[in-house]
Structure formats: structure tokens, C-alpha cells
Amino acid sequence: MVDSLKNHIIFTLLVLGLVLLGAGCTGNENSKDSAKEASSGRAGSQEISLKGSDTVLPLAQAEAEEFMNENPGKSVTVAGGGSGVGITALIDGEVDIATASREMKNEEMENAGVNGIIPVEHAVAYDGISVIVNPQNPVSELTFGQLRGIYNGSITSWKEIGGDNRPIVAISRDSSSGTYEYFKEEVLLGDEFRPDALTQPATGGIMGEISQNPNAIGYIGVAYLDESVKGLNLDGGNGSAAPSPENITSGVYPLSRPLYFYTNGEPSGLTKEFINFVMSEKGQNLISEVGYFPINN
């Protein structure tokens, strides 16, 4: 009788343990599902985040500010860091939108697939890259060949291209920048950047260096141009052209490109609302006000 009672108690405890273990596993799975849902952006969420290109940053900030003014209670946070940084954040499920001044690479697409992320590209604006020098520099225009020579190191003095007998100080964005990638592809045409090129992690650093150094040259998004630096005319083979709105949107200026938002799958909820706002007439007009060029003409 005693042995039978003991066996009954042991059996009851084992069953209870299995029930509790099963509940714990279900709770863990639910937690994982919740985390996955949060990382991909809930349809009813009132907050989204953007991260990436420093070129796209002023545009995204202006759009977010106006969107929130029109939609109290809805929050859009924006951060820079470079196109590569934003794309990595999207791949890791940390942001709702990656902003980029270049297309995603095949390797990034593959990494996204491994994480169950399906990147969808949205071209939202056009931008031009301005090659800039110090206002004291007498050089006002360059051919693509001269620009390539400066950045691959085969041209080392301003005297070689019509300037003073001074050494050229070439400044570049770092490799996480979409502008760096675009410039390397379109200007260097397979060459490597000169080994003594100075790198800056953000556009502001390039602007600061060039505004203080009469020997320096760099490249930035046209929207950042101000009186502290001088934008050069470029001749890509069809005549010299200034980085003006007309030349960029018509394609006469040789360094122009689309700017992108990337989402995980087709956008929904607040992410879709925000992108629809950016692509609306009001959003595209705001792009012009900030200094970029509407993609919906």
C-alpha cells in the first residue's frame, strides 16, 4: 500500500514537471515570435526608425519632421552613419528603413536572405555629387581623367591641372559610405584610392577640412554645398557642367544618382504611410526645398 502510494506521487510529479516544461517552451517560442515581430515592424506600431546614408540624412530628417507635424502621436527617428551601416541594421532587423546612396550589393542581399530579410528598394530622390575645393583654389573645373588621376595618385600637384605649385591633399569618405562606393565605381573605374588619401566618416568632416586647407579636394552630396567650399564644374565627355539642379536632373552633370529607402518586404503600417508621404507631391516638394531633386516629376 505504501509502495503504491509512493509510485503514485512520483508519477504525479513527473507529469507536473512535463506540463511545466512544455509551458516554458511555449513561452520561449512566443517570446521569439514577439521579438521577430518587433524587429520587422508591427503593422499597428506608432514608431519607426531609419538609419544609413549621411547623404540621405538631411532629406530623411526633413521628411520625418514634416510627417510628424502632420501626424501627432506618430514617431519617426532618423540616424546616419553611412549606407553600409544602415543596410546592416536592416539585415539585423534593427530598423524599419535603411537609407542608402547606392544599391545594395549581392553579398548584402545574400546576408539578408540568411536572416530571413527580403529587401525591397524604393528610389525616393535624385542627388548629385559635387567635387569641392577651398574657395582660394584657382582651379574651377576638372575633366573626369584629371579627377581620376588625382584620386588614384597619378596627379599629385595642382600645377599639373592649372593650379598653383602645391601638393594635392585628397580627401575621401570611408568605405562604409555609399558615396565612397559610387565615386570609386564611377570615377576611379577599377583603380584603388591613392594610399595617402585622408578619410572622413561623415560629410561634415570633409567640409571642415577643405574649408580650412587650400590644397585639399573632396566630394560631397550637392545638398551640402555652401559658401565655405567651392564646387567644381566637371567634364565627363559632353562638355563642362556645373552641379546645378537642371544639369543633374537632365543627366548633363556626370555625377548624379538616385537615393534609396530599403524595407524588409513590401512596407506596411506606419512604414508604408511614411514612404507614401515622401513620394507624395508634398514630400517631393520638400525634397526640392532641402536641396535634392524629386524623383516624381
Task: Using brief descriptors, characterize the structure shown.
297 residues; D-Maltodextrin-Binding Protein, domain 2; 10 helices; alpha/beta; 3-stranded mixed β-sheet; 10-stranded mixed β-sheet; 2 domains; 22% strand; single chain; disordered N terminus
Gyration radius from CA atoms, angstroms = 26 Å
Mean pLDDT: 87
Query: How much helix, percentage-wise, in residues?
Result: 40-55%
Kindly provide the name of the CATH class of the largest domain.
Alpha Beta
**Number of helical elements:** 10
- The structural domain count equals 2
What is the CA–CA distance across the termini?
90 Å
What proportion strand? 15-25%
CATH superfamily of the largest domain: Periplasmic binding protein-like II
Named at the architecture level, the CATH assignment of the largest domain is 3-Layer(aba) Sandwich
The secondary structure category is alpha/beta
Shape: globular
| SS elements, strand count | 13
